[in-house]
Amino acid sequence: MAAAVGRDTLPEHWSYGVCRDGRVFFINDQLGCTTWLHPRTGEPVNSGHMIRSDLPRGWEEGFTEEGASFFIE
């Protein structure tokens, strides 16, 4: 899993969002376009969390760097 994503690691005019499946997308706020690749590294990033439809409302599944899953309320 890639390093944590934060505003301090993004270039100026960039922000990010997280999809329900845990994939992180990046937004160039100046140009109004998006990408799956981190604007500094050029690599995709996963948040390590995934919202699943089979879990109770408010729960999501997370994964450790070793790949073990855990649940978060």
UniProtKB/TrEMBL annotation:
GO biological process per UniProt: cell-cell adhesion mediated by cadherin; epithelial cell-cell adhesion; pore complex assembly; zonula adherens maintenance
GO CC field: cytoplasm; pore complex; zonula adherens
Localisation per UniProt entry: Cytoplasm
Annotated source species: Myodes glareolus
PANTHER family membership: PHOSPHOINOSITOL 3-PHOSPHATE-BINDING PROTEIN (PTHR12752), PLECKSTRIN HOMOLOGY DOMAIN-CONTAINING FAMILY A MEMBER 7 (PTHR12752:SF4)
Keywords: Cytoplasm, Phosphoprotein, Repeat
WW domain location: 8-41
InterPro entries: WW_dom, WW_dom_sf
Name the UniProt record assigns to this protein: WW domain-containing protein
